[in-house]
Amino acid sequence: MQNIKDFDLHLLDLFVTIVELGGFSAAQSKLNMHQSTISTKMTTLEVRLGMTLCHRGRRGFYLTNDGENVYKLCLKIFNEIASFEEALNNIRNISNGHIILTLTDNIATNPNCKIKDAIKSFSNLYPKITMKTDVFDSFQIEMMLLDERIELGVTSSEIRKKGLTYLSLFDETQSLYCAAMHPVLDVKGKLSAKKMAAFNLIDRGVSHKITPLTNLNKGENVATSVNMEATVHLILSGNFIGYLPDHFADIWVSKGEMIKINAPDLDYTAAFHLTLLTSKELSLAARKLKDLIIKAHTI
C-alpha cells in the first residue's frame, strides 16, 4: 500500500466526480474523457489504493464498502484543500490590500485616543497594506457604513443607528469657551443655563439634544456648527460662546486667546466608538485593524 502523500489527487478528484454523477457514462461529459480512459484511470487508482472502490457493469454503477469510505475521506480532503486555499487568499489580501479608516474631527489631541498606536502596530505588522484616512462628521460616517462604502469608522453619536455596531473606545469632556474679554467673563460665580441664555451661543444645528444648552438660544445671532474647527473660529471672533473638547481648546487657552467659562454644571461627556456594519463580515485587513484599535484602548 502506498503512502497517502503519493496519491494522485487528480485521480481522487476523478473518483469523486464519477460518484457524484452516478457512473462512468454520466461522467464522460463533465470530465471530457472517453469512458475507456475513465475506466483505465479508475483501475490505476484502485491498484494504488489496493482496494476495489466500485463495481460497474450490467448491474450498473455502485460503490463497495471501501468505496463509500474512500469517497467520504475524499470529501474531507477536498474541503480541507478549499479551506487552505481560502486561508492563502486571506494572507495574500492582508499582505497586499487597502483599507479606509474614517474619523470624526479633532480627536488627535485627546490623550485617551490611541488610534495612532493602533495604526502604528497595524503598519508594522502589515507594511504592504495601503491605508486611507478621512475625516467626516459622525452622521456622514454612519451613512457611509450603511451604504457599504467603508468598513470602519470612529464616531461620536448621541443616537445609535439600526444596523450598526458601536464598540466603546474613549471619552472626552466638552466645556464652554469664549474669547478673551468676552462680556460673559464679567458675570460673577458659576454660570447657569438661564444666565447663558443672555449670550449668543453656538448650537450644533441638529434636532436632537447634544449639549446641555441645545436649542437654548433662539436669538437672531445664533450660530450653528457640528465641526470643532469651525466652532473655534466662531468663538475667537468674540461674538459667540460654544462647546469645545478641553484637550482641543487647550491650544488657544495656553496662548490666552480663549477662556474656559466657569460653568462646570454645563460640561458634558462625549463618547467615541469604533463603528461597523452589523450585517456584513469585515475583510481580514479590516478585522485585524479593528482588533488592534480595540486592544490599544483597553491597555
**What is the mean pLDDT?**
88
pLDDT < 50 runs, ≥5 residues: none
Most strands sheet: 7 strands, mixed
Number of strands: 11
Structure in words:
The protein has 299 residues and is of the alpha/beta class. The chain has 3 domains: 4-95, Winged helix-like DNA-binding domain superfamily/Winged helix DNA-binding domain (Arc Repressor Mutant, subunit A, Orthogonal Bundle); 97-170 and 271-296, 3-Layer(aba) Sandwich (D-Maltodextrin-Binding Protein, domain 2); 171-270, D-Maltodextrin-Binding Protein, domain 2, CATH 3.40.190. Helix content is 41%, strand content 19%. The chain is built from 10 helices and 11 strands. The strands form 3 sheets. Strands 3, 4, 5, 6, 9, 10 and 11 form a 7-stranded mixed beta sheet that branches. Strands 1-2 form a two-stranded antiparallel sheet. A hairpin with a 6-residue loop joins strand 1 (54-55) and strand 2 (62-63). Helix 1 crosses helix 4 (65-96). The longest helix has 32 residues, at 65-96. The two termini are 56 Å apart.
Observed structural traits:
299 residues, alpha/beta, Arc Repressor Mutant, subunit A, D-Maltodextrin-Binding Protein, domain 2, 3 domains, seven-stranded mixed sheet, two-stranded antiparallel ribbon, 10 helices, rod-shaped
Describe the protein's topology:
Elements: H1 9-21, H2 24-31, H3 35-49, E1 54-55, E2 62-63, H4 65-96, E3 98-103, H5 115-125, E4 130-135, H6 138-146, E5 152-155, E6 164-179, H7 193-196, E7 202-203, E8 223-224, H8 228-236, E9 242-245, H9 246-253, E10 258-260, E11 268-277, H10 284-296
Parallel strand pairs: 3-4, 3-5, 7-8
Antiparallel strand pairs: 1-2, 5-11, 6-9, 6-10, 6-11
